Amino acid sequence: MGDQYGQQQDLRNMRQGGTAAFDTADTAAQAPAGPRHVGEALKARREALGYALPDLAANLRIRLNFLEAIEEGRWGDLPGHAYSTGFLRSYAQIVGLDPGAVLLRFKQDAAGHEPAPELYFPEPVNESRVPGGAVQLLSALLAVAVYGGWYVLSASNRSVGDMVPALPERLSKLIYGDGTVVEPPPSPTPMLNAGQVEALVEGSAPSAPEVGGAGASPLPAPVQRRDPDAGTPLPATDTSPVAEGPVNDEDSEVPQLPDLGQTGLPPAADPATPDVEPVAAGEAAAMPAPPAANAPTATPEQVVPTGRVFGQAEGNVRVTIRAVEDSWVEVRDGKGTLWASRVLRRGDLFRAPDIPGMVLNTGNAGGLVVSLDGRDLAPLGAKSQVLRSVPLTPEALAGR
Amino acid sequence: MFSNLLGMFSADMAIDLGTANTLVYVKGRGIVLNEPSVVAIRDLRGKKQVLAVGDEAKLMLGRTPGNIQAIRPLRDGVIADFEVAEEMIKHFIRKVHNRRSFASPEIVICVPSGSTAVERRAIQESAEAAGARRVSLIEEPMAAAIGAGLPVTEPTGSMVVDIGGGTTEVAVLSLNGTVHARSARVGGDKMDEAIIGYIRRHHNLLVGEGSAERIKKEIGSACPPEDGEGRVMEIKGRDLMNGVPKELVMSERQIAESLAEPVSQIIEAVKVALEHTAPELAADIVDKGIVLTGGGALLANLDYVLRHATGLPVSIADDPLSCVALGSGRALEEESLRNVLIRMY
Q1: pTM score above 0.90
Q2: Least CB–CB distance from B225: residue in A11, A117, A122
Q3: Is A120 left (phi over 0), alpha (psi -120 to 50) or beta?
Q4: Kinase: present as a keyword of the record (chain B) (predicted)?
Q5: What is the four-CA torsion angle of B209, B144, B266, B292, rounded to 10 degrees?
Q6: For each of chain A's 400 residues, which pLDDT tens digit applies?
Q7: CATH code of A62's domain
Q8: How close, in Å, is residue A32 to chain B by CA atoms?
Q9: Is B175 within 8 Å of chain A by CB?
Q10: Could you point out which of A212, A347, B70, B88 has its C-alpha 20 to 30 Å from the C-alpha of A183?
Q11: ipTM over 0.85
């Protein structure tokens, strides 16, 4: 290649009317030696040949300012590396220097100045998306919340209505108008043990704080109420109709109170004392225990609180299922029609229609009491026992 | 994902599948192979066998007995003989790709900008059949410009003239894309043919392709010397009149005369490309000029002729023969140049 260029350069010199052909060894030695950079070497050579720079520019078709930049060593003013080397090669050829040596020197000179051209391509600008990240996050949270709410509702098999707490009895009485201002239920009393009651019976007043300390709120009234000796004047109040008379006879002993503590859950006790007449209470005040006595007799089964009623709504039915605990039941008739498939809450009642082939599936056999013609039958099974296909027809139940 | 993993083990390569020479650039190693695109095939009782590829085969070109054929599978920059081209690519890949790596390589191959979709597909299929994992194509002028170090990714016009063996590619490039490209089916081969035709017409001497190429390299010039005959060279061939071998002395002036036709075609292609260049790009080109790459750029005085025909500065790239292979290799290696690669399917 170098050979070719050498010959080419001879031709050029002839064409330019140049003086002589220079052998490459001479110029190669010359170029790196004297001048500070390759541009000065070229300039010296050009001036020695007597060429003017503008003539050279016209001949090489290279812009004059580029040639000046080369001669003055301003490498930064030259276009890219690929072009600069081309210019230098042309220049070297026309003034009869070896292009190879000149380019080598140029690369050394300009090495620090011009790094290898970085080829990069502009990345397309991302279009800004319409919903920002915050909006997306918010909507995702909202979606999760909505789904979660729906899931909780549907999973617990309750409607929104069920989630509203039952109306407190006091208020419901107000609404239905069957009572005066209702006293707080005597629930605190169960907390008392026998000894305490004794103490109360004797020395009424001071005990009040103590009872209050026992944990329940409106105590003074019930406590006082129970004071037999004071006999009277007072508030001693509660005697439910049920508890009157006979009951008093039966349970005249104070020590029965502990039983109350065991059994007398507030809800159970509540219905037992629907009406409280101060006057009546006064009459009954002789006996301290009535309310206490009352509670134990009221077994949970007999209590029918605000239970819902399912199944056949109208008419008489012979078989009913009452839940004493929350129990899942499924009732089908002989044709497979589903009559109920739900959780019966405590106190709920299912009135089984009188259809042949009725069967019951339940997840809590001990929590259900089946009645036939109003008579409670023996329990179906133990608590939490799962029973399937228990016949619910009167004929089948009669045998139990 | 998996192919990325394989890519770490395979020696990905870029191939400048030229009409005259095939260069192979291996990722991380540079140009490792530069051999003529010639395949010698022996016909053994109707069964074809590859006898030699590359340098060995080129020596056989025009000197083969009846049962051996030395074939150049590419003509005018595109594959003319698919089977032979496939064998050649396979041979080069095998030669370059070390056997230890089990993964097949990703290959980038150059195609002329003027090649048709059918031709491109044929090249891609040949490479796939030769065992490539994935084949991408790159247009030759783009590869040449990248190899010459032109700022092709910038919003500035660059004009490159790549004179190969079969085609001359003239292109104006900007922003990783081709603004205008012309592919003239003239190149080194056409120059050789012109020399052969000239000598036969004027001297009744028939010379082979190999001799013609040697003449072109030694005393070929794009324009006649200003005075005298220039350099001279002894030429050997067969006399057409009496059929005996004969020797003849040819001068540079005569060869320049014979090359006038292909050179004027190249100039024409450059001029047409300039005519189709948008004014802003033309302004860039006026400043920086044209860069010549490819073996044809080594033809003496071609830059001089082009400079005077166009009035633009004309530079010859460093190592013009390797520009295309270097550029293809760079496109293979550099992520920012990936989008110049073409995939047919």
Answers
A1: no
A2: A11
A3: beta
A4: no
A5: -100
A6: 444 444 444 444 444 443 334 444 444 444 444 677 888 888 888 898 888 889 888 888 888 888 888 888 888 888 888 888 888 888 888 888 888 888 888 888 777 665 555 666 666 666 666 667 888 899 999 999 999 999 888 876 666 666 677 777 777 777 776 545 445 555 544 455 555 555 555 554 444 444 444 444 444 444 444 444 544 444 444 444 444 444 444 444 444 444 444 444 444 444 444 444 444 444 444 444 444 444 444 444 444 456 788 877 777 778 888 888 888 888 888 888 888 888 888 888 888 888 888 888 888 888 888 888 878 888 888 888 888 888 888 887 877 7
A7: 1.10.260.40
A8: 20
A9: yes
A10: A347
A11: no
Which residues of chain B lie closer than 8 angstroms to A11, CB-CB?
A: 221, 225, 230, 300-301
Q: Which of A7, A59, A61, A70 to mutate to test the interface with B (most CBs of B within 10 A)?
A: A61
* Pairing of the two strands A368-372 and A375-376: antiparallel
Question: Is residue B15 within 8 angstroms of chain A, CB to CB?
Answer: no
Q: Which two tokens stand for residue A11?
A: 């031709």
Residue A325 lies in a domain: yes
Q: Residues 6 or more apart from B61 whose CB is under 8 A from it? A: B38, B70, B72, B209, B210
Q: How far apart are CA B98 and CA B94, in angstroms?
A: 7
**Contact assignment for A7 to B152 by CB distance below 8 Å:** no
H or E element in which residue B135 lies: strand B134-139
Task: Look at residues A110, A126, A161 and tell me which one is the last residue of a structural domain.
Answer: A110
Residues on chain A touching B298 (C-beta within 8 angstroms): 1, 4
Please judge whether B337 and A79 are an interchain contact, meaning their C-beta atoms are less than 8 angstroms apart.
no
CA–chain centroid gap for A290, Å, is: 52
End-of-domain residue from the set A90, A110, A130: A110
Please give the structure tokens belonging to residue B287.
């400043």
Residue A237's closest CA among A168, A174, A298, A283? Answer: A283
Say whether B149 and A89 touch across the interface (CB within 8 A).
Answer: no
Residues β-bridged to residue B292: B161, B316
Q: Nearest Cα to B319, choosing from B25, B6, B84, B10? A: B25
In Å, how far is A327's CA from the nearest CA of chain B? Answer: 56
Q: Which residues in chain B touch residue A122, judged by CB atoms under 8 angstroms apart? A: 175
* A46–chain B nearest CA distance, Å: 19
Q: Which domains does chain B have, with CATH numbers?
A: 37-70 (no CATH), 155-184+258-317 (3.30.420.40), 186-257 (3.90.640.10)
Identify the CA nearest to B292 among candidates B166, B185, B164: B164
β strands within A293-392, DSSP E: 309-311, 319-323, 327-332, 338-344, 349-352, 359-362, 368-372, 375-376, 387-391
| B264 min Cα distance to partner chain A (Å) | 20
- Whether residue A350 lies inside any domain: the answer is yes
Q: Which helix (H) or strand (E) holds B15?
A: strand B13-17
Tell me whether B177 touches chain A (CB under 8 Å). Answer: no
B219: closest chain A residue by CA: A4
Residue A286 vs residues A237, A289, A295, B258, B295: alpha-carbon distances, Å: 11, 9, 18, 147, 131
Domain that holds residue A367: 309-399
Task: Categorise residue A61: left if φ over 0, alpha if ψ from -120 to 50, beta otherwise.
Answer: left
Tokens of B302: 């071609």
B residues 136-155 closer than 8 Å to A (CB): 146, 148-153
Beta bridge partners of B174: B177
Q: ∠B110-B115-B119 over CA atoms, to 5°? A: 85
3-state secondary structure at position A369: strand
Asked, for residue A203, whether it belongs to a domain, the answer is no
Chain B contact set for A6 (CB, 8 A): none
Minimal C-alpha gap between A34 and chain B (Å) = 26
